[in-house]
Amino acid sequence: MAIDFKQVDFTYQPGTPFATQALTDINVTIPDGSYTALIGHTGSGKSTLLQHLNALLKPTAGTVTIGDRVITPETSNKDLKALRRHVGIVFQFPESQLFEETVEKDIAFGPQNFGVSEADALKTAAEMLDLVGLDRDLLQRSPFDLSGGQMRRVAIAGVLAMAPQVLVLDEPTAGLDPQGRLDMMEMFANLRYERHLTVVLVTHQMDDVANYADNVIVMDHGKVVKTGTPQDIFKDPDWLVAHHLGLPKTTAFAQQLMARGIQFDQMPLTEDQLAQALVQQLPVQQLGGATDDE
Amino acid sequence: MMNKLIFGRFIPGDSVIHHMDPRAKLLLSFYFIGIIFIANNWPTYVLLFVFTLLAIKLSGVKWSFFINGVKPLIWLILFTVILQVLFSASGGHVYFHWGIITISQLGLINGVYIFCRFVLIIFMSTLLTLTTPPLELSDAIEYILMPLKVVHFPVYEVALMLSIALRFVPTLMDETEKIMNAQRARGVDFGEGNIFQQMRAVVPLLIPLFVSSFNRAEDLATAMEARGYQGGEGRSKFRILKWQARDTWATLAFAVLTAALIFLRA
Amino acid sequence: MSQIINVEHLNYRYPQQSESELTLHDVSFSVTAGEWVAIVGHNGSGKSTLAKNLNGLLAPVSGKITVDGQVLTEDTVWDIRRKIGMVFQNPDNQFVGATVADDVAFSLENQGVPRDEMLKRVADALAQVNMSAFATREPARLSGGQKQRVALAGMIAARPKILILDESTSMLDPEGRADVLATIRQMKADSDLTVLSITHDIDEAASANRVLVVNDGELVEEGTPAEIFQHGPALIKMGLDMPYPERLKAALKRQGVTVPATYLTEKGMADWLWQLISNK
Prior knowledge:
The complex is a heterotrimer of chains A (294), B (266) and C (280). Chain A has 294 residues and is of the alpha/beta class. Chain A has 11 helices and 10 strands. Chain B has 2 domains: 2-142 and 242-264, no CATH class; 170-226, no CATH class. Chain B has helices at residues 16-19, 22-35, 42-59, 63-70, 74-87, 105-131, 134-145, 155-185, 195-226, 245-264; strands spanning 94-98, 101-104. In chain B, α2 (22-35) packs antiparallel against α6 (105-131) and α3 packs antiparallel against α10 (245-264). At the A-C interface, α6, α10 and α11 of A face α6, α9, α10 and α11 of C.
């Protein structure tokens, strides 16, 4: 399911003394089936844009087209619910949305709001737990007895249970330890293929953008300032720094190598790309595969 | 969401009123509410309005804030006024009479007076909150409660509680909005359906809010203890309040107002 | 050099745990005055629990903790808390003051520091963390990184001998994280502060003189950052990010390249590659 923004403006509290414009003239498309990364420094308008993806906010000017639904400033609030089933949002620290007595009931909460019967929803809950890599033994436990990482997975299962076509992730790995972060990102990559999802990832981690995304939207001061593949975005390091954004670790390291005189046909973004590029330039005797002095 | 509320919001500014001692502002606002009841005829009400509007003018805050302050309460005010008009003691010319309902000249005049009282009280308290940061108000309350230390009332603790509560209001409002959004994204309709459905919709909001508030409270208590907080005794104060000439002048202005009201009342 | 922290056979269990369980099991270590020690471990390994035992926020089941010559007991706990400044993970939940300056002053108020001196120390501390312009701001208008710098200013004003950072940068964006880390490095350079940082962040761990690895409530390893970083991909299991040179080494190995076993810094790695390629 594609999401398309045309000349979208958004102003908080319009017509009051506290009015602030958060989005200006947004024209951007999130293609169906893409893994789109939304990046920009804190306060660039990312979270406001994110809330337009399932019409939690309506534009104050312009149109947002979500699948075949067109949202304009005049759209009534009444029948937006159906839409929200198709675009699932995992907010930052999603574990804070848990509230039911058991894990099972919490996961089943979303589908039931969309008219799924209790029996079907509970059955889905068990399947979702498998999907996020948790044991079914947890179904009858209170979500508040789980570890932080487990709670987050339960919250994600609660969003997946609505069977959305688009999955929006707002900094899903914030506060996790390195192993947890790695597992979480791999889980989303797998889910994308298994469930044929369009994924939108809001992140500050440029390595995740380089490793997982195929489309990037860069925001600054409430505007979209660049869109393209990760390759397009990261080929100009100075531009990124000017917009308070970092580089993937590999690209930053490749820059050090380039400063010494090593050349690359294409800017490497991941360590595997860099390793492949280096292998072609390294002397043959180095290609033994072992570790020195071991 | 909550941003629509004008009452209780502080508008930064540089006026004489902004710079007044919050104790003076708080006490004089209460005093003003008291002396409104001295007024009982047109000249006294006009005087009160002139005085209030002058104070608003001095503060430099836009008129629209005060009008907006009245708006949310307008139905309550009108309801009270109508009750007053219909059921209060009658006198003067009677325009309408049916059972216990009487609309009389005196009743109508009384209704208008009550309306004026409401508006004056709202204007003055809005002026207080618009020109005084909540923190200064809590300082003022601490000073005013100070005599209660004699009866072992924990004044410092209450003041700290108040200032922490104020400091966490924006944090909890953000949190509320965040959880609301998360639950709306899961298909909850807030503010729709019948009263029963609406009450049910609040559960997925309230429970997470409680859980997170308890977690915050625990973290905060730990942080305070780590930073050496052992209760109010033996602490020194970083923020102090200063009574200045302008506060004395303001007090005098209220004294003159009182004298004038007593002189003009019927 | 003198020992400023000494922990001997520390055991800790939370009140809700059963008799057979321990969150910390027989932990012993010491820290030299002026040292920067990083404590790493995956979430739930017990590293934050360890930190909270050091200034008596949690009371151990058994074991002995000595801080700056004083044994931690109920009688000395407030003295010891004055010697240890602690910055926690969540920037919002440790901001006590209603404004920036108020928050910085909080520890000083608790110590009963006279107001004249307080004003001076608060102003100096805010200047040091580059937040003077924000003195009268409310916390709601600050970014996470700014709030953590205010927390650090609170520490500077209170002048503790030891600074404990309990995942202080983990909820910040990269810019905020870099700012906070730079501020800590500056604080360390300005005084003979002892720093204990609990972290997953490789840049923070690399700043330390020594790294302690905690796993399932036990101290499993200690060494210089270079020694610990040699573990390569196993670091992730220890709760630490992989340093970039180790990531690249792993990728090169997958391509069949022979790589050095010792830890290389980024510069060392770049030198090594350049030498191989330029001498070809």
